[in-house]
Amino acid sequence: VKLYRVFSLMFDNLPGWMRPTAESRVKATNMHFQELNSDLVVGGGNQKNTLGQGMTIDAVHLTEMSTWAPDVAEAVDEDLKPAFESSRKHHTLFMIESTGQGGKGNWFHDQYQAAAMGKSRYIPMFLGWHSCPDKWALYDTSVVIAPETESLAKRLEGEQPGLKLTRDQLVWYQTTKADYESRGQLQKFLQEYPSSAEEAFQMGVKSVFSIE
After folding, report:
1. Crossing angle of helices 167-182/147-159, nearest 10°?
2. In angstroms, rounded to a whole number, what is the distance separating the alpha carbons of residues 137 and 165?
3. Secondary structure of residue 84 in the 3-state scheme
4. What is the 3-state secondary structure (H, E, C) of 22-74?
5. What residue ranges in 42-177 does DSSP mark as E strands?
6. Using alpha carbons only, what angle is made at residue 126 by residues 77 and 131, rounded to the nearest 5 degrees?
7. Among candidates 129, 122, 127, which has minimal Cα distance to 96?
8. Is residue 165 within 8 Å of residue 133, measured between CB atoms?
9. How far is the C-alpha of 145 from the C-alpha of 149, rounded, in Å?
């Protein structure tokens, strides 16, 4: 529903000369553009109907894939990918994005690992909290940056040329991590604000071994 609202907002705010006529709009499900002989179809990760059977699909955006029901995720391979492969348009795009929620072994993790090893046609792209330099910052001059936080910053800056983390960003990272740790939820912090793909795919359950 939320994604459909985003699409609707974008569509409704297009300039008149750019906005095609929507012959029908089924709330949270479909927009039909007769002039373009095209449809915008929205579904969910727990839906029971098929994904793409009988369709030719030019563009796909799958969001929060790690939370999808296993049988629906498997339908991506069985139904959606063949429908996408039937398109021969120059503007085709198949994009999958998600946090690492659920840990290792689910459909999204398997897809990411295959791409990272060069065994699929997907291009892997990891975006950590540090990939948005101006997004996370906490202005508190009383916080002392811990050695392990400084070590993390040094590693990230070495891995990403041109990256320079500010003190305020490190304060945010250190204090936010400490907050999650104090509540025994470090694995959730690493999933939501990872600095590497390995951190993102932490197991979503508690273990007798510490996350650290």
Report:
1. 120
2. 10
3. helix
4. CCEEECCCEEEEHHHCEEEECCCCCCCCCCCCCCCCCEEEEECHHHCCHHHHH
5. 59-63, 93-97
6. 145
7. 122
8. yes
9. 6
Q: Is the dihedral of CA 4, 97, 53, 37 positive or negative?
A: positive
* Residue from 130, 148, 129 nearest 192 by CA: 129
pLDDT of residue 45: 74
* CB neighbour burial string for 57-92, b if at least 16 within 10 angstroms, e if fewer: bbebebeebbebeeebbebbeebbbebbeebeeeee
| pLDDT tens track for 81-125 | 888 988 878 889 999 999 888 777 789 999 999 999 999 989 999
Q: Note the Cα 58 to chain centre separation in Å.
A: 20
Residue 171 and residue 145 in contact, taking contact as beta carbons nearer than 8 Å: yes
Tokens (6 digits) for 83: 């429908």
168, two tokens: 């305020």
Rounded to whole angstroms, the Cα distance separating 181 from 187 reads: 9
Rounded to whole angstroms, how far apart are CA atoms 125 and 128? 10
Residue keyed to tokens 């490190």: 170
Q: Is 193:129 a contact under the CB 8 Å cutoff?
A: yes
DSSP state of 184: T
Average pLDDT value over all residues in the chain: 87
